[in-house]
Amino acid sequence: MSGNWQKIRLGDVLTRSGEAGAGVVEGACMTQAWPIVKLGEVLHHRKVFITIEDTLEYVRPKVKLHAQGIELRDRVSGSEIKTKKQQVCRASDFLVAEIDAKMGGFGIVPIALDKAIVSSHYFLFESNQEKLIPDFLGYYCKTKAFRDQVTAQGTTNYAAIRAGDVLEYVMPLPSIDEQQRIIARISTVQLQLQKADKLRGSVIAGLHTLCRSLIINDPDTKQMVVAELVKQRPPNVNVEPDVSYQFAGVYSFGKGVFKGGVKTGTEFAYPKLSRIKSGDFIYPKLMAWEGALGVVPDECDGCVVSPEFPVFEIDTTKVLPDVFDVYFRDPSTWESLQGGSTGTNARRRRLNPTDFLKLKVPVPSMTTQRKLAAIRQHQNQIHRINAQAESGAVLASLLNKLLS
């Protein structure tokens, strides 16, 4: 079947908006020619327990949701492990989380986590490697076709998956040679995507550094109190029980404002909310010191936030929103926020609006600010390309085309 493969064009992978991965390995969806088998025909459920010894150190894995793989959770002494009966993972096992499977809590155990331990709330399956290469299953379990089978098993947050359920799932099974060819081609695409992600990340970081330098090094930059530059807007939305509200949030570590979930008025206790506008500046009082501050982007215009998020209108005759966004997204700025935060517990520090308004920020000349805003436009374009060509989404699209 290898003659049906087409060349992979990285440009197709990276730039197609709304159809990430379209055109990649065109015409290679060949599952109709492959037999469909139950996992029970190629996997064996291994259920062997060991007794944990207090004097030994053990490695525990973390099964990431959304089929994002398995990584190191921690290394602990046996004396810290309460449940003394544990299972031992082997490299290339298919590991499934009993509760989180319907959220994509499964994957192939990497070599680095060989001999890691898991509780009885996980299932371990060995592959018959004469029929199934573990990495092929590792790719297939990321597809919508596989995940739909898992989510169909439970309808509540606590609906558990059983080992017998897993063995009833089905998958296409090409020959071992074909599996090897598919694995090699997908691995090549992954490497290309990782290189592209790294390059775009470097460009974005460089542009941020340039913008930061413009603010600090402009000879006309002057220190101004935040209260001179913004005006706080009080909550202005009366909550109604039967109305749906589109919420926004702010990522920590300078990652900006994002559109969150939709909730009805019966799903939260706040009597009032704040309607935010593009160009506003917001932050959560509790996490601001950790870099959770940002200017509201266009896509979040009209969203709401709780009273725990102070909302500030920026006086654009004095400072452009891009300047505020660059300054408060920079890690070197977050240290100054800790001084204004209150609370004895580090995780409970709060940045109150009165303290925020007392802060001083560097404000360059309006000419420099406009240059900075133009650079940010280019930076945002790269961010949008990143979103369209995010490697995880491209890979998922590719896998769905190849294997579903």
Structure report:
The chain contains ten helices and 24 strands. The strands form nine sheets. A four-stranded antiparallel sheet has the order 2-10-7-8, covered by helices on one side. It is α+β, with helices and mostly antiparallel strands and about 400 residues long.
Give keywords.
Adenine-n6-DNA-methyltransferase TaqI, Chain A, domain 2; 10 helices; four-stranded antiparallel beta sheet; disordered N terminus; 404 residues; alpha+beta
Tally of separate helices: 10
Strand arrangement, largest sheet? Answer: 2-10-7-8
Could you tell me the mean pLDDT?
85
Largest sheet report: 4 strands, antiparallel
Task: Tell me the layout of helices and strands.
Elements lengths: L9 H6 L20 E3 L4 E4 L2 E3 L5 E7 L6 E8 L7 E4 L5 E4 L8 E3 L8 E2 L3 E6 L6 H7 L3 H8 L11 H6 L1 E3 L3 H42 L4 E4 L4 E4 L3 E2 L5 E7 L6 E8 L7 E4 L5 E2 L11 E2 L8 E2 L5 E4 L6 H9 L1 H10 E2 L7 E2 L1 H6 L1 E4 L2 H23 L2 H13 L1
Antiparallel strand pairs: 1-11, 2-10, 3-6, 4-5, 6-9, 7-8, 7-10, 12-24, 13-21, 14-17, 15-16, 17-20, 18-19, 18-21, 22-23
